[in-house]
Design goal:
The chain has helices at residues 5-24, 27-33, 35-39, 46-50, 169-172; strands at residues 61-66, 72-77, 82-89, 92-103, 105-107, 110-120, 125-136, 140-147, 152-159, 174-180, 185-190, 195-200, 205-212, 219-225, 236-244, 249-255, 262-269. It is α+β, with helices and mostly antiparallel strands. The chain has a 17-stranded mixed beta sheet that branches. The N and C termini lie far apart (93 Å). The relative contact order is 0.12.
Length: 270
């Protein structure tokens, strides 16, 4: 039987396609397994995939921004889905006014949280609500907090490039002081091993440790209160802290497991 070169080429292509289908099990499986792109000269093998940089899809990272009511916001979204948003007094970025904390679901530019709690230091106490927003990974984040009372607050922020740095206890070590919106001052002394002690002007004293987290420029915090004037009595509570190298400020928050007790601080290194 005589076949011209065109017919021969068609036969070879058909044989190659059938061989691929047999290897994959079905035509759809070929595409799912990546056989088809490789057969066409594209795609990546296992070695190539491992060399590709990861693509950020969640809202993870540190964020800096403001609210329409004149508050400054410094926040971190962790890889475990928890978020910690510190906010200052209106028109005064040096005085800590509270913390908004919860657990989020963020994917493909949408952010949502149904267990938001606001630990306010201006007299409002602990407020509950929800948080919804949108973000561009490693660029911008916008969110709205809706309280059960009907009030809302909006946050607009940009990605903090310091998120990419490794947490460094040697950099953070020092003596810190700060003022809270409840008129209490807080002083903290932290050494390069991560051990700290501190006291507030109401007479409460505490001590604990900072340890670098595996991801993000953030520290885990464990603090034990020493009774006396402390509302937390002798409780040991846990939370997070991060350092702003530009302003030399240390942001920290610890909560009990039920999220009914908190201790917050925003201190500047002397």
């Amino acid at each position: 039987m005589h076949m011209d070169w065109t017919s021969t080429l068609r036969c070879l292509l058909a044989i190659g396609l059938m061989s691929g289908l047999v290897a994959c099990g079905s035509f759809a499986s070929c595409f799912n397994s990546g056989f088809a792109p490789v057969a066409c000269g594209g795609g990546y093998g296992d070695r190539d995939l491992s060399s590709l940089p990861p693509t950020a899809t969640s809202a993870e990272g540190r964020w800096t921004g403001t609210t329409p009511t004149g508050r400054t916001v410094h926040a971190v979204v962790l890889e475990d889905g928890s978020y910690w948003l510190f906010y200052t007094a209106r028109d005064n970025p040096h005085v800590l006014a509270g913390l908004i904390q919860g657990t989020d679901t963020s994917h493909s530019g949408s952010f949502g949280s149904s267990n938001t709690r606001d630990f306010n230091l201006e007299g409002a106490g602990i407020r509950t609500g929800t948080m919804r927003g949108s973000y561009v990974p490693n660029q911008s984040f916008q969110g709205t907090i809706a309280y059960l009372t009907g009030k809302t607050e909006r946050v607009t922020s940009t990605y903090d490039a310091d998120s990419e740095s490794a947490p460094n206890l040697n950099l953070v070590a020092g003596i810190y002081t700060g003022l809270r919106a409840d008129d209490h001052t807080v002083a903290v002394t932290l050494d390069a091993a991560g051990t700290f002690s501190g006291h507030a002007s109401d007479g409460c004293t505490f001590a604990g440790t900072l340890s670098p987290r595996a991801e993000g420029n953030v520290f885990n915090v464990s603090a034990t209160f020493e009774g006396g004037a402390c509302r937390q009595e002798t409780e040991t509570v846990n939370g997070i802290a991060f350092y702003d190298a530009t302003t030399n400020r240390l942001y920290g928050a610890v909560l009990n497991r039920a999220r009914t007790t908190s201790f917050l601080f925003l201190c500047t290194k002397r």
